[in-house]
Amino acid sequence: MSFPSPPPHGPAPGKAAAYAQDPHPQPAYPQAPVPYAHVPPRPAPVIDGRDLRPGTRWYWIGGLTIPIGVLVALVVFLGLLFSATAEPELIAEFQGGDSATFQVEEGQEGHWGMYVEGDANRYACELDTPSGPGSGNDNLDTAPYSYSGMAYDSWRLTAELSTPEPGEYELRCDDLHSGTYGIGTLEQVASAETKLITGVLFLVILGPLSVIAGVVVLVVTGARRSSHRARLVQEWMRRAGTPQGPPAEPSPGHGPPVGGSPGGPQH
Questions:
Q1: pTM of the shown model
Q2: Alpha-carbon distances of 165 from 109, 138, 139, 160, rounded to whole Å
Q3: Shortest CA distance to 157 belongs to which of 118, 114, 124?
Q4: Helix ranges (DSSP H) in the chain
Q5: Are 160 and 186 in contact (CB under 8 A)?
Q6: Which among 121, 133, 117, 138 has a CA at the least distance from the CA of 169?
Q7: Which of 17, 37, 183, 235 is 20 to 30 A from residue 194's alpha carbon, by CA?
């Protein structure tokens, strides 16, 4: 039994579905591009530096805090250093092998000290009191304060003169130790150590603190001005911003009428 042959120019039965699909479908009607309103970019706001807070004077304050603090610390240190190591005020001065007398007034007991310069030595001296001549170093007590000048050859406090009563005293020193001997008050050197410690504290504390304080002021000022600038920019953008409208309607003549069909009006 024979079956009719397919048409010579028709598609094969298995390929009918493939030919039925259009690989490049075309729109049912031409579509015009939808125009949108062009919004130009907003210009960047210009913020006047004089409007920023805190003011620029804080930059000057922070910048000047550093050198002024360091300079003050250095001046105080040098002033206390020179005061603590200054030449003592002497009421008598003599060489080894000689002597000197001085008067102790009422209320000046324990007020005087013996200073030496160069190779002078306290053990070469004796102190005669109003009550009688001294014997050895009996009337030479240990110095209550530590004091020395800027160098070895400057004046050094070596003993406190025992002056328990008013009257005339005589300090005698032999020539076994060459050098210069002097008699002066203890008041000037009483605070020498305190002055030195205070000066060092000023230098090592006030100097770094002034640097830290100045840097903190500069950093905080810069951060706060930057934050204030950003806040002003945001406020300007809110004031200058306008709401975006809906997209523009297509131009007349493009596209089908509203409610129509691609094939035209239906009857």
A1: 0.57
A2: 6, 15, 12, 14
A3: 114
A4: 16-20, 57-84, 187-190, 192-201, 207-240
A5: yes
A6: 133
A7: 183
| pLDDT at residue number 127 | 94
Going by DSSP bridges, is the β-strand pair 125-128/112-117 parallel, antiparallel, or unpaired? unpaired
Tokens 């030595």, residue?
A: 121
Backbone φ and ψ for 63, nearest 5 degrees, come out as: -70, -35
For residue range 92-104, list pLDDT tens digits in order.
999 998 999 999 9
pLDDT per residue as tens digits for the range 211-221: 999 999 999 99
Nearest Cα to Cα of residue 69 among 214, 200, 188: 214
Length of the chain: 267
> The tokens of 135 are what?
């014997």
- Residue keyed to tokens 């090592």: 204
- Amino acid present at 241: G
What are the φ and ψ backbone dihedral angles of 61, each rounded to 5 degrees?
-60, -50
The 10s digit of each residue's pLDDT in 36-74 is 666 666 677 788 888 888 999 999 999 999 999 999 999
Stretch (H or E) spanning 243:
none
Distances (CA, A) of 201 to 11, 65, 195: 107, 18, 10
182: β partners: 93, 115
Q: Please spell the DSSP secondary structure of 11-76, one letter per residue.
A: PPGGGHHHHHS-SSPPPSS----------PPPPPP---GGGSSS-THHHHHHHHHHHHHHHHHHHH
